[in-house]
Fold:
Amino acid sequence: MRFSLESALYTSPMTFVIRILVIVVLLAGGTLTTLAQISPTPGAGRDGYASVPGARLFYTDTGGAGIPVVFLHAATGNTSAWQYQTRAFTAAGYRLIAYDRRGWGRTIVDSNGPAGTAADDLRALLDSMDLDRVHIVATAGGGFVAFDFALSFPARLRSLVVADSIGGVQDREILDLETRIRPPQFDELPPEVRELSPGYRAANPEGTQRWVAIQKQSRPSQPAASTLKLAYSTPMRNQLTLSLFEQIRTPALLLTGGADMTAPPALMKILASHIPNAEFVVVPNAGHSVYWEEPELFNGTVLDFIRKH
Structure:
């Protein structure tokens, strides 16, 4: 198997950078192979709970003296979703922290306590760990929180990485685009069909099964609900708009899969164009879960970016 990698840089009037990463995957012996040859590392690190107003956030923490990188999962995920990232980021010298957002996974919500916003929960988590400035890596619905946090608490961030996310933006331009790309029946499809590319599902049935197992445990005590509605129902400090994105000054990297049916390149390119000096990467054959489908490429791209900041 051989790969041909090309990258192109563009500069817009907003002076943001777009890096289009093209991957040409060749067929070997009639079998489709993928770049994701690394093994998952489930359960690595120390587990714990952080008390925040109205909840106890479950988290995993690899510990150590490295610069912290905080991972925010999708509406279909939890802390286990980052098992392909643990080894790569710790080997690179970083401290990896992942947590179950309020309403997901093993986080415990006090029904009588204050609701709070997702950005406030994240700030409280950092405070409980005595962490000043961190890198944030978020995917899909976690990206809503990451953008809101970047706008609310920019001094707490070293860099911002958001993958496969519609960003929580509700400008008419974005809403009209979403209507064009997703039919009303989209949410009725199985989650793995919505979020994993057909190429990945065909080539990696075991990886698909692991992804589905995590998805089923993402909200174990909650009724089934639309992934997009769950993402948009997350409490925010800001009403996210494209014009508000222009105020983000944190170094930012946005990336998505070319086969992403929820946040395709055309949509995420619009988001990136409104963030000054943002970098944008497209992984052509991946779906809505680049971190899972192409972990080696995802990890390398993100590590290269955060090393600069």
